[in-house]
Amino acid sequence: MYIIKIILFIFLFNLFMGIFIENFFDFENIPKKYGDEINDIKISPSKDVPKIIHHICPKDFRRWHSKWFYCYESWTRIYPKEEYTHMHWFDDELEEVIKTDGFEWFLPTFQNYNVNIKRIDMVRPFILYKYGGIYADMDIEVYKNFYDQLDKEKVSMVESPYKGNENISNCLMASPSGHYFWLLVIDRCYKYTETYTLLSTGPQLYDKVYADHPELVHVLPDVLFNPAPWFEKNDDIYTKHFNTVMWDGTK
After folding, report:
1. Is 34 exposed, middle or buried (0-12, 13-18, 19+ CB in 10 A)?
2. In this structure, are 69 and 86 located in the same domain?
């Protein structure tokens, strides 16, 4: 009888914990209020992707790679400013995003990154959490409007063609505002602050979160959104990433 009671207790305890974990998400590294607002990690708090295009770039055009000019022009042409808001985040002013948009608690970590690309990487989940919309690296050219291809309640992330490094990439992403996926990325990043860029703030970090919560992510297939350099352009492709790697060795 005693053994039966122990088994029953273990069963009920596991059942309770399963329900608790399913309906409440406790974050270790970000303010408690975020976790308290979440009833179910799988349910998006908003149901639409705002028509906002985000780019991060140097304010000084002389620092732009030559490919960036026609890539940027493609976004303003395919997503006209009459319908879409284009927001520019200058890479020497990113600290102000953390300071002024309610994320001051992340400032010490943001300031302590040893290379600037980590700050350029890590400001993205904060921007998309607050504003939502589409984020694209400056070296991505767009050929067709893919707004209707986005899942309006999930995070959309482009698939990587370089499966030896990562499965998804943070070069092209979209989401509703306030999506919980970005909190998961921010919470996870603390584990890797001292590691190399791809893992600490880059696509491998997103891979870690995606592996745990694939139900939160709508993957944009690489053959249509991120074809490898050896793929030829065709009429089905929406975007192409040119990998100009301007941040390599950045200070």
Report:
1. middle
2. yes
The CATH number for 56's domain is 3.90.550.20
Angle of the 116-131 helix axis to the 180-189 helix axis, nearest 10: 150
pLDDT score for 36: 83
Name the stretches of the chain with pLDDT < 70.
1-24, 246-251
Angle of CA points 222, 160, 234, to nearest 5°: 25
Angle of the 203-212 helix axis to the 180-189 helix axis, nearest 10: 120
The token pair at 89 is 């985040």
**CA distance readout (Å), 15 to 9, 10, 26, 42:** 10, 8, 18, 19
- Cα 128 from chain centroid (whole Å): 7
The tens digit of pLDDT for each residue in 186-227 reads: 999 999 999 999 999 999 999 999 999 999 999 999 999 999
Nearest in space to 66 (alpha carbons), one of 142, 143, 139, 171: 139
Same-domain pairing of 3 and 126: no
Say yes or no: 205 and 109 in one domain.
yes
State the pairing for strand pair 133-136/52-57. parallel
pLDDT computed for residue 25 by the predictor: 72
Structural contact between residues 53 and 86, judged by C-beta atoms closer than 8 angstroms: yes
Residues of the domain holding 66: 46-241
Q: Quickly list DSSP for 176-237.
A: -TT-HHHHHHHHHHGGGTTS-HHHHTSHHHHHHHHHH-GGGEEEEPHHHHS--TTSPP-TT-
Secondary structure (DSSP) of 3-19: HHHHHHHHHHHHHHHHH
pLDDT of residue 247: 55
What phi and psi, each to the nearest 5 degrees, are found at residue 38? -100, 120
